[in-house]
Amino acid sequence: MLVTAVRGGLAFLTRLPVRTDEESWEAFRRTPAAFPLVGYVAGALAALALSVPFPAPTAVALYLAALYLLTGVTHADGLADLGDAAAVHGDAARRRDVLKDSSTGVGGALSLGVVLLVLALGAFSLTVSRGWHPPAVFAVALAAEVGAKAGMAYLVCTGRPAHEGMGSALAGDADASDFGSVAITLVPLVLVAAVVGGAGVVAAALAPVGVAHLVGRWAEEHLGGVSGDAFGAANELGRAVGLHAGVIAWTLF
């Protein structure tokens, strides 16, 4: 069941050439723990690009390219849509209408641009903090990606769908008690932290879950519940914040 769910998650959350079918999709959407497990795969591949012995700006460019080649732009599009909805004055129904608009407004463009800049600066800071230390760079970048996917799983377990669609498909069955299985998938990161990265790895993994909680609260208040765009925004925001939290914790502790 878990292997099938991870296969479905790889097909849904990445652009990796993974065979998928209705069974794997159903297993994935009913298994929140599959989210961070997919994060280990995508995070490891992207973190490798950031750990190469190139000048920091080049390594960051490779990391960003690898990240979006691996994961596609679906989540970034969700962030842009949520940015447009946040910029609109009106009730939840009006904001949900904006989410369905395929054009990107100023709010979406600004949100996406700022988050990409924050992500790039976080990756740059990671490569230059405390000297170049590839194992720690890899571990913190990996933890941020796993944490971002754990944040999405948190919304699956705690969110109330705003309407029929991707949000209801993912958040319709699980409840808060299912997040325990998600937490278990983060245990390997604790073991990694004991060897390299220390507090930075832990902070990078946990901060995105806090971000997802805030995104979920905002969506509940302003959209009437979580949507597929909220999942994408939680992923993009969580990864960026996770990198900075990891750098800060690694530098201070």
Structural class: mainly alpha
Let me know the average pLDDT: 92
Number of domains: 1
Assembly status: single chain
| Tally of alpha and pi helices | 13
Note the run of SSEs as H and E. HHHHHHHHHHHHH
Main sheet specs: none
Number of DSSP strand runs: 0
Distance between the termini: 39 Å
Report on the architecture of this protein.
The chain crosses the membrane at residues 104-126, 182-207. Its EC number is 2.7.8.26. By secondary structure, the chain is mainly alpha-helical. It has one domain (36-252). It has helices at residues 2-13, 22-29, 34-50, 56-71, 74-87, 92-99, 106-128, 134-158, 166-171, 179-185, 187-195, 199-222, 228-252. Helix 1 (2-13) crosses helix 2, helix 4 crosses helix 7 (106-128) and helix 11 (187-195) runs antiparallel to helix 12 (199-222). The longest helix is centred in the middle third of the chain and has 25 residues, at 134-158. The radius of gyration is 17 Å and the shape is globular. The termini are far apart.
Characteristic key phrases:
253 residues, mainly alpha, globular
Topology:
Elements: H1 2-13, H2 22-29, H3 34-50, H4 56-71, H5 74-87, H6 92-99, H7 106-128, H8 134-158, H9 166-171, H10 179-185, H11 187-195, H12 199-222, H13 228-252
Keywords: Cell membrane, Cobalamin biosynthesis, Magnesium, Membrane, Transferase, Transmembrane, Transmembrane helix
Family: Belongs to the CobS family.
Membrane topology: Multi-pass membrane protein
